Each structure stands twice: as C-alpha cells, then as structure tokens.
Amino acid sequence: MKKKVWGLILAAAMTAALMGCSSKAPAETEMPEAEAPVEPTTEAPAEAEKPEAEAPAQTPADTDVNNLEGKKIAVLLKSYTDMFWVEAANEAKLQGEKYGCEVEILAPTVSNSNEEQIQLIENSLVSPPDLYVIVPADSEGIAPAIQAVNDAGIPIVNVNTKITDESVTYDTYVSCSQYDLGYTTISTAIEKIGGEGKAIIIFGKPGAQTFVERNEGAEDAFKEHAGWEVLANEIGKGTRNDAMTVMQTLLTKYPEIDMVYAQNGEMALGVVEAIKQAGRTDEIKVAADNCNSEICQAIEDGSIYMTYDDGAWAQMEMGFKAANMVLGGETVEKTYYSDIYLVDADNVTEYAKRYEE
Length: 357
Hints:
By secondary structure, this protein is α/β, with parallel strands linked by helices.
C-alpha cells in the first residue's frame, strides 16, 4: 500500500466532506467543506444536546528516540481475512520496518473468535513480547487473557476496540470515536439522500464496543430526523456471509427500503450481494463504515453509496507511536482519537489509489 504518499493524494483529491472524530457528535446541518485531513483536535463542535464522550487527545508524540528497536511487538487482531484487519496487519509490518522491531501478528482462524484470541495470547506468553498491541473481538470477554498479560507485567496498547472490563488494565487506547463514526455516517447519508425514508441497520458483533457505540451514534442520528423510520436493527456478526443471510431475510420482509447502514465494510459487501441477487440495487442505498479496495470498487459501480473510513492504517500507525512512548517510559494519554474520512462517488477514484500495490 502506498501509505507514504497518502497525504498528498488525499489533499489533492478530497472533494467531498470529511470530519475528524471528536468528543461529541457533530451538528447535523453543518457538514465541513472539503479539506485535507487534520490532526485530531481537543475542541468539540458546538452541539450542546449531544452526550459527552471522552475528550480526545492529540496524536501520540513523534520522538527522536526509538524505543522499539530490537523489541518484539505482538499484534492481536480480530481476523486475518477481513480486509480491514489485513490492512492493519500490513501497516503493523511497515511500522516494524520503520522502528526496527520484530512484529508478530496473531489472529484467530474464525473471525471475531474471543476464545481463539484468548488462546493466542496465552500461547504467546510462553515466549513473551515486550509489548502487546491488542484489538479484542469481545471487549469484556478478552479479560482473562488481559489479566494474564497484566500478571506478566507486559504493557498493552489497546487499538480500535476498547477493553471495557475494569478488572484489567491497559496503558493507552487508540481509535476513532466510535459513537461519532456511527452518528456522522447516518447524518451524512441522510443529508445526501434526503429528509425521509425507511432504513435498516445491520449491527456487528454483540459484545464489541466498536459496534455498540457506532449503533448508539447511528440511532441518535436517526432520532434527529423524524422523516426516517428504522424498520429493523439486525445482527450481522461483523462478517460478510452472516450479513448477506440476514439481509436476504429482510428483503423478503420489507418491500420498501431506502437505506441500509452496515456497521463495517465486510457486512456492507454481504448486504450488497443480497441486494444484487434481489434485483433492488437501484432502489436501496448502502452506507457503511471502513474502506478497502473492494469497497472502493463497490462505490464506483454504485452498489455502495458511501462509507466513512476509520483508517486501519491510521489507527495502527498511532498505536506504534504510542507503543514507542510506553516503552520509553513516557507519559501517555488514556485515549488518542484518529480522524475519519468520507468516501463517496465524488472522491473514490483518488481515494482508491492508496490501495494500489
């Protein structure tokens, strides 16, 4: 992936609105004009009625001191087949080359398997790393494995999906604001589509904080638009096949659907396949979260209407910056929030260039 030139490409190509994650949901009527992505800010947009979230910190600091060189970093992901996590793994390897550290990728054979993740961590402790970068499939279910890491005295950088069991600890959390991601995706989609319609939500995996908070944001956005009715909110388990099966059932149940919100890219692609098979592509717009080359192609051919990319590459890059600070004994913030990026028909051709080999 050509991440090295990403800044130049995006600055030249972003012709649609983009919005950085913030500490509270943005105002629905004030979409920002196109601009190059900026560093996360500690200032939240004026929107008094939206619930408070954690105040975002600045990006982990760049430092001239390389505290990762020669170290072993174990990176636990939710999957090694979902393209979002493949991209995260590839970025972790690039960061390993940058810092001169050994990167071990751990991922379950069954996508989002909490049981396999626990076993992978337990096995890795036989020859322990110097630091873990952990993306849990289950925010609370991962606790036994995190406790084992805590007992071993090994630091943890928690990326993307928050570890929520308060009986265990991690050093810092790096992600975008998941609430804002769901809220912004739906607010933007409604602004682009129009003031009324009927919608379906395809929820991800129960127990994963990312999907829980995206869902809260999306539901709040729908509540602000009285002309939109949510017909159903069904579980797609975060996978393409499960989402396709669920969507097939929903298509037979509901003759009128204007929009489907799929809470990750894999589920969006499953939804698209079900809609294509039913011959309803022209009448249903699919809004999603995450991005990859396949999603870009789906946007180009019109089967996905838009997505907000929360940037696996950006989160993993920030995760390694935080890891460098942690192993250097520097003070880190509890939370670091990354930006999100709107991808639609207006900018998808340029955005897709970042996935070229």
